[in-house]
Amino acid sequence: MTPRAEYPRPHFDRSHTWSSLNGDWDFRADADEDWDRTITVPFAWETPASGIEAHWLPVAWYRRRVAVPAGWAGQRIVLHFGAVHHEATVWVNGTEVARHVGGYTPFEADITDALRDGEQEIVVRVSSPADKREIAHGKQRSVPRDDFDGVCFTPSSGIWQSVWLEARPATYLASLKLRPAEGLDGIAVEARVEGPSPATLRLTLRGHGTTVDVTVSDGAARTVVAVTEPRLWSPEDPHLYHVDAELVSDDGTDRVTGYTGLRRIEVSGEDLYLNGRRLFVRGVLDQGYWPRTGITAPDDAALRHDIELAAAAGYNLVRKHLKLEDPRFVHHADTLGMLVWAEPAATGRFSAESVAAFEAQIAPMAERDGNSPAIVIWGLYNEEWGLDWDIPGDPAKQEAVARAYDLLKALDPSRPAVDNSGWAHVKTDLLDWHYYDESAASWGKTIAALLDGEQDDFPVPLGPDYVVRKKLTGTPAQPLRGLPNLNSEYGTGFTSVERAWQLRWQTQEMRRHDRLAGYVYTELYDIEHESAGLLDFERRAKDLAGVDPAHVNATTTLVLDVVPVAPGRDLLSDTGRVTVPVRISHHGTESVSGHLHTAWSPVYGPAPSRPGTAGAAAEAKPFLLGAPAEVHAELPDGWTSGRLHIALVSDGAVLARSAVDVDTHTAPVIGDDPQARP
After folding, report:
1. Is residue 625 within 8 Å of residue 584, measured between CB atoms?
2. How far is CA 76 from the centre of its chain?
3. pLDDT of the residue at 210
4. For FRET with 310, which of 96, 226, 475, 643 sits at 20 to 30 Å CA-CA?
5. Alpha-carbon span 116 to 152, nearest angstrom
6. What is the pLDDT of residues 2-54, one digit of tens each?
7. pLDDT given at position 677
């Protein structure tokens, strides 16, 4: 069975004339003389799935013999690589046909002139240096180490995305750029044509009976295909429009299908809007690693499954972190309605070479994935990685960040871009920050101070006893006000119980502030030694002590006016009686109202199937935190502790849930934060 047998490039679909080359290839290390091993493509040579499991191998060779389908006679034959880490040289029948540098970007080679009668031999030499600091490598570990080595993982070297052949005429479609028209009533098409012959282009809006003939001039064709009764793409209705492009020339006919969705993402003051409706980002970090296959998904279903897991946990956005992911992931996000924050792989040191390597990813990223309606945010640098953690102190690094932003925005002005996620900003559309804190008390205070404008920096622990304060901006030219604020990395705790506790309380504190445009939780699943996930590395559920992330991340949530003490004992009460002020945070389109119901379970118990006893009325308008409504409750007789479940119920339906653990043992215990006691 061919691994990853699905068509690799759904945004530029020429699948009527392709042949997968995934599967078994001959393999040898550079020092070997014989081709005595077999590797399974497209899995990196470090991975068990590859059949090789070679670590810190700097150079290796691939070889495969293939037959070109007889039906492709008279056409140009093109060899495609989705991604190869890091530097590849390709020969066909002894003729060099391609050289490519960059481990995350696609490349192709017209191999027609190198073909011979009968079987063809493809040989690929791949260099993947152990010292990755000046190349784009994202979260792959480097030797010597990066400054951020503690959050890096096993490298993934060699061919790690699909390899395939396609046939096309000598005059062909090189790209098909599809964007929503200004009024969201059509699709703006920009096609690039290459080849020796004049050509005409016919565009058909599939299923709508709309056909447009476009003149090709100087290798380009531009038009707008009108859409009657347009249906907008959104997470609730991820409707896609497919455009069939037919290019006719004396060399033959080339056919390609692309697709996009009609949607608009825009920044207006401190808010994000999707199709004219305010958008609150409820995001989760996804680094794109799998246990036996490294940075390659084991199969197409795994890419889709991760999106479904994020949606089940209440998230509406996935931040694909420091990695140009397989295009199939973006495709599944498009079809499932999951918003995506996409970004390139990071480098590890600041130099002219590393800056050039980073920037080389920007144009391929925008071209390959730009048709996607799901991608609503482009990211660039992250936490000054590849910038020696020193943007404020070095004008050259500030210039590099600003140039990356300008390069991206020149290619795609339709989406907001983040220049340097989390730390000192130089030129950005979103003011995001990464804030981690173990203390519930200081977490709430710092979030409030950042959003109220009382402080423009925050603490960042860079070591066990080394904490620095990171400023939101790295240059006076970058405004501190008037842009959407996002906490785009947070989450802490050494056990799954602690992490669930922090998830609940830290997220509710952000929902307290109407000015916040969203958040991104770190992270969806564990990776190797990093146990920060809501799921383990195998995507199995963890013990979250009764906390359901779907309740935490719901469109409507409850915000409790409580500063919790510690997991299992949020509120201390020597009598067992508590009063909890409860507010509603609601990010829907209409106001909500209902009554607050209460029920008890043991500490760490899940929400009961029935909401319990009705109490005070509560309400909220969209994106405005509701006024407090008090809940009064008392531990059942004989209980010294318990979990008080609070639910907002309207017309018999539960709209929101939260909980607070009550303990009558008021003396502090190990793990308490004395400053956090109410």
Report:
1. yes
2. 36
3. 92
4. 643
5. 45
6. 999 999 999 999 999 999 999 999 999 998 989 999 999 999 999 999 999 99
7. 30
pTM here? Answer: 0.97
pLDDT of residue 466: 85
* 472, 456 contact by CB (below 8 A): yes
CB 24 within 8 A of CB 18: no
DSSP 124-189: EEEE--S--TTS--TTB--SSPPTTGGG-B----EE-S-EEEEEE-SSEEEEEEEEE-TTSSEEEE
pLDDT digits (tens, 9 = 90+) for 84-126: 999 999 999 999 999 999 999 999 999 999 999 999 999 999 9
Residue 433 has pLDDT above 50, yes or no: yes
Tell me the pLDDT band of 467, cut-offs 50, 70 and 90: confident
In whole angstroms, what is the distance from residue 426 CA to residue 445 CA?
A: 26
Check residue 510 and report its DSSP letter: H
Burial state string for 247-261 with b = 16 or more CB within 10 A and e = fewer than 16:
bbbebbebbbbbbbb
Nearest to 341 by CA among 383, 367, 377: 377
Cis? peptide before 523, omega within 30° of 0:
yes
pLDDT over threshold 90, residue 531: yes
Structural domains in the chain, CATH included, are 23-161 (2.60.120.260), 172-260 (2.60.40.10), 267-553 (3.20.20.80), 558-676 (2.60.40)
In the chain, the N- to C-terminal Cα span, in Å, equals: 61
**19 contacts: CB under 8 Å, gap ≥ 6:** 66, 69, 164, 165, 166
Q: Which two tokens stand for residue 417?
A: 């871009």
Name the packing angle between helices 496-511 and 440-452 (round to 10°): 30
What does the DSSP 8-state code read for residue 70? G
Within the chain, what is the greatest distance between any pair of CA atoms? 89
Q: Is 116 exposed, middle or buried (0-12, 13-18, 19+ CB in 10 A)?
A: exposed
pLDDT class of 678 with cuts at 50, 70, 90: very low
Contact 182, 174 (CB under 8 A): no
Q: At which residue do the structure tokens 């209440």 appear?
A: 314
Cα 423-425-428 angle, rounded to 5 deg: 125
If DSSP states are collapsed to H, E and C, what string results for 272-317?
EEECCEEECEEEEEECCCECCCECCCCCHHHHHHHHHHHHHCCCCE
**Hey, how many other C-beta atoms are within 10 angstroms of the C-beta on 477?**
10
